Input
Amino acid sequence: MYSIIDIETTGGNPYRDKITEIAIFVHDGKKVIKEYRTLINPERRIPSFITRMTGISDEMVARAPKFYQVAKDIVEITEGTVFVAHNATFDYNFIKSEFKNLGYYYQRECLCTVKLSRKLIPGKRSYSLGRLCRELDIQIEDRHRAAGDAMATVKLFELLLTQKTNGLFLETLGTGFNNTPVNPAITRQIIEALPAKTGVYYFLDDNDNIIYIGKSKNIRQRILSHLSRVTSKKALEMVSMITHVHHEITGSELLALLRESEEIKAHKPLFNRQQRRCLYNYGLYSYKDENGYLCLKLDKTRNGSLPHTSFTSLEKGKDFIFNLTDQFNLCQNLTGLYGTNGACFQYAVKQCRGACIGVESPQEYNLRAQQAIDYAGFVKENLIVLDNGRTPSESAFIMIENGTYLGYGYVERSETLAHAEEFKTYLTPAEDNRDVRQIISGFLRNKRTGKRINY
Output
């Protein structure tokens, strides 16, 4: 007996989000013999993008039962059955989490129709429910609603039952969805061969296209996390497409970040959509006002512009300027935080020296403002930064010259290099851009790198 299940939720995290709808079709191996479906009040607001996708709104669930009110039904209807779902990790972990909140340990043997489909009907372009069903001519009525998706999974399950399974159903039972990859193409041997070291990793599809690039201080652990903790349908689509995994050890976390950024821009992977473009869309600029005071301004970055530093959002930029203003005792009028015609509030509480009303001279104020800009900005001097290499006997380095990032390289610790030109013989050139500058500046400000050599 099988319970074929689909749920809708307020988001993708089973430890934070809640179930809004559940559908269960009990199948005896030949046909559906029982069904159960209900909306569930998640006791929190449903995000608007979830409502747009599923059609389930706050108004629809306002009078629906809460999970504890349907928990007994779910236990009873699935008792003695195998839990079946398309990406069973997602649905099973959500249901287990809801029961855990009630103090009940819910456990069933599981079958994942993604894993079974990859084994029994290999070679499909995608194993996401929507695309797979389209390719197999399985109609999905009411897509992204629990009953519609669950019934599509029933039809897929019945199709899989007609294949020569050779015991594959038994092989996928009880495989520990919390820590076992949902993609059978990536075997445990492949995972165990990955290094537990810092570097960059690449996911490739069956045409050897790079579909995702990431970085981690522990490549093996991070890749296993991708494969075994699928918490969204987008993540499932990516995981189902992976056929090969490549990696590059960097040793240095700084170098891993730089290489990740560089490689994403070069290859434009399908599942790195946001990182294909420059991530830092707001920049910190400076100018002198009509009275000669050095002012700061947070503005959108433009092509060709190189701000002192940049940020992923307006809010992060404002937070940074607040901290900069406090650290260097600047005027909030002149840092663009609060504009007033007279003295700023900080002057009244003696936290501003009066540049806003001319009490402090531009010469005195500008010294501190320039120190703040230098602190915030990219490296102006010629600098070599050393960090951990790929082996204990090796050092990684990056090189900055005349305020421009030149690239990176590796040298043996036993070699004594005295001049910049000697380092350049080991240098791999790389592009200088806003993302690179932000990555390097953040590391240098937080002192997260090793020895620094000025030249």
Summary: The chain has four domains: 2-171, 188-276, 282-366, 383-454. The chain is about 35% helix and 20% strand.
